[in-house]
Amino acid sequence: MTYNYKNRHSHINIRKKSLSIVKKINKLAYNSTFVYPLVIKDGQGCYLEDIDGEQYLDFTSNIASCPLGYNHPELKKIIKKYGDVGAHKIAGQDFYCEEHCQLAEKLLSISNSNSKVFFINSGAEAVENAIKLAYRRKGPLPGIACINAFHGRTLGALAFTFSKDVQKINFPELPVKRIKFCISDNEPEIDLINDIASEYKVSFIILELVQGEGGVNVASKKFVNNLNNTSIKYDIPLIIDEIQTGLGRTGRWWTYQHYGIKPSILTIAKALQVGAVVFDKKFEPSKPGVLSSTWGGGSRIDMAIGIKTIDIINKEKILEKVNKSGNFLKKRLNELKNSSDLIMDVRGLGLMLGVEFHKKVIRNKVINRLFTNKLLVLPAGVKTIRILPPLVITDEEMSKGLDIFEKVLKEINN
User: Fold this and answer.
1) What does the pLDDT average to over 24-42?
2) Domain stop point among 315, 332, 365
3) Last residue of a domain, one of 284, 300, 315
């Protein structure tokens, strides 16, 4: 969606610098998926500041990439430390560095110690390499992916993405078989995976347990158990995409822990600051060079922040806090749903929540009005708002954001 700032004169009069930058960027660069005319200058805690000095309460965490909010004192020390390091970025698959070793050790300690890890630049590249590992073992057969899935925009990952037409038209695709993403144990398609696996040879199953871009849809436990059991029965690698959900976002280190399963391959990015693929050792290619990257394992500042992020989540018992905060937010949002005929559904896990409206036009209007009231949220799916606040958000900040939400709903209802 695009924010209609031309009709917000009372707000934009004090945002001249921001709008000037927005206009220049739109002239000089491709206007892809910008949600607001917001030009970020700085951040503190759960607030972002634009270049005009306006402060916004952030319920996006920059799409879950800033789990500890902004300007965390311990992360700030890391940045200052690396300010004096000349070789802060190296070709990480050609040269070794200590941070590569430390992050690998830390990551495997909270996922699967009997695995190996491959670092990469981004989430989409993590998916690309997860797919490569599966193909290497099973051959270039079709993969199984879900309707409304989002796994990235590089061509390989995009083949298994099924979110918006604009992302896919006229682009070639790898072979794929699509199944419905079941959110209820009672859906008739819930056993379809068994039929596909018994009839066709496939190379992998790839799945988000909570679809972010697709609308914050939460997979049913029976659906996930069926996929997991089919994966084991037919020896099909199960790739779990935790790029947006991982590192505590849903109240566990990994969302798959809510379901009692263990994936063959795990893709990670965003909160980790770098992309990563964690895979069972049996998937390790027998020859070097099958997986490679110029910068994978070489962004030393990002890896150091990833290491410290894991330490802080552990030390400050943030997983417990996420569960409490998520329950608080969900309860209040359901109260708003019950008092407003605009909202159709509230769903999610931990601090990854979706508020679905009856109409897309209402959803967009709510997002725009929230922005003018200094609260940042994101669109998802067709008519859903995605709420992803920093994991360190306080009760006071949640209440403030919810009060703004309630005010906007009342304004639109009147």
Assistant:
1) 94
2) 315
3) 315
What is the residue whose two structure tokens read 């896919």? 168
Q: Say which residue the tokens 């993590």 belong to.
A: 126
Q: Do residues 280 and 136 touch, judged by C-beta distance below 8 A?
A: no
CATH of the domain at 207: 3.40.640.10
How many structural domains does the chain have?
Answer: 2
User: What pLDDT shows up at residue 15?
Assistant: 80
In this prediction the pTM is: 0.95
Same domain, 33 and 113: no
Alpha carbon 194 to its chain centroid, in Å, reads 28
Q: In what order do the strands lie in the sheet with 275-280?
A: 115-120, 275-280, 265-268, 238-241, 204-207, 143-146, 176-179
Torsion of CA 104, 227, 380, 279, to 10 degrees: 10
- Give the 3-state secondary structure of residue 44: strand
Predicted confidence at residue 1, as pLDDT, reads: 59
**For residue 338, what are the domain limits?**
5-71+317-413
Q: State residue 276 phi and psi, 5-degree precision.
A: -150, 145
In this prediction, residue 14 has a pLDDT band, given cuts at 50, 70 and 90, of low
Cα 129 from Cα 44, distance rounded (Å): 35
Please compute the mean of the pLDDT values over residues 206-212 and round it to a whole number: 98
Residues 377, 292 share a domain: no
Q: What φ, ψ does residue 118 adopt, rounded to 5°?
A: -130, 125
Q: Are residues 200 and 294 in the same domain?
A: yes
Nearest-5° Cα angle at 169, 168 to 170: 110
pLDDT of residue 152: 97
